[in-house]
Amino acid sequence: xxxxxxxxxxxxxxxxxxxxxxxxxxxxxxxxxxxxxxxxxxxxxxxxxxxxxxxxxxxxxxxxxxxxxxxxxxxxxxxxxxxxxxxxxxxxxxxxxxxxxxxxxxxxxxxxxxxxxxxxxxxxxxxxxxxxxxxxxxxxxxxxxxxxxxxxxxxxxxxxxxxxxxxxxxxxxxxxxxxxxxxxxxxxxxxxxxxxxxxxxxxxxxxxxxxxxxxxxxxxxxxxxxxxxxxxxxxxxxxxxxxxxxxxxxxxxxxxxxxxxxxxxxxxxxxxxxxxxxxxxxxxxxxxxxxxxxxxxxxxxxxxxxxxxxxxxxxxxxxxxxxxxxxxxxxxxxxxxxxxxxxxxxxxxxxxxxxxxxxxxxxxxxxxxxxxxxxxxxxxxxxxxxxxxxxxxxxx
Length: 396
Fold this sequence. Notes:
- The protein is mainly alpha-helical.
- The protein has two domains: 1-235, no CATH class; 239-396, no CATH class.
- 69% of the residues lie in helices and 1% in strands.
- The protein has helices at 3-14, 16-33, 41-57, 71-81, 87-113, 120-130, 133-141, 146-161, 165-178, 186-196, 201-204, 206-220, 227-235, 262-286, 294-311, 321-333, 339-357, 364-388, and strands spanning 243-244, 315-316.
- A two-stranded parallel ribbon has the order 1-2.
- Helix 6 (120-130) packs antiparallel against helix 16, helix 15 (294-311) runs antiparallel to helix 16 (321-333) and helix 17 (339-357) runs antiparallel to helix 18 (364-388).
- It is globular, with a radius of gyration of 22 Å.
- The protein starts with a helix and ends in an 8-residue tail after the last helix.
- The model has no long low-confidence stretch (mean pLDDT 91).
């Protein structure tokens, strides 16, 4: 082998992770592009009409609500109307960019969890997240924006682990300003606050303050500040469906519209969820669980999200997006449970295929049996490893 060849191979060996990241990014972009021209029912029925309204109204249109997404998303949509991309590519370009941000955020979170500070696990996490089929389908096929709020939640957890509370709650506030589903992770911050005493109740006030600041441009243009609250309040009643293609416990109870029992089910589901989460908090307090420990925090987050998805009514299949990402991160941190993200992501994939392509791989009730079984196991290991042994810190 010549000296030049040796130098080339030495350079490749030293930069193999960088080469891998570039290759994965190229591959990920390629599979994202496969769905770039696909128009979902959501796009045809909602996103495109919203775009035409925002485009025709101009900047002054920000003073009124268009669609049922929060004000920051409407503001970004307006900015995209000023570009030549057009509605379909603009929506998807925004989401795909945040898919990259999401993958980087997940990698940073894994890096913050790893006491050895190795680059291998973060790079592997980046690849798994960016090329995840549910991530690809969510953005490049569906033109949804779940990667935006989840990216900021991951960054928030990353700052929380570093005990940088103000940046952490700012990130959480930004996440909440884009999607109401960010509220699913909020109990974890309450658990962390009570169990570690490393945050203050004052930090929680940062969340609505950041939401207000994110909506400020529209308020300056004449938007009623109360819209910040009413938009999300109206979202919770949208469609009045008890079960919305999410294989939780309600998949066995009803199918489609149930106007007579909707508010009863909704109230019941909220009370049930709060009760279960409250019981979890009581056990965490009683056992003096150390939530500053990586595995404890991850498992608690997964159990909390899973509880919300399993017991709250009107859950879409997309609402498990953060859960799917956190299970990937957990599997990288704890390889013995690599099956967990596989099953959770396959369950989500079934819902995506059903909505996007009208292809039902499995009946939702069969999928619900699997999902409930996984939730039961997650609850078991949460009690066993976090509640019962959570005060014994086991660093990774």
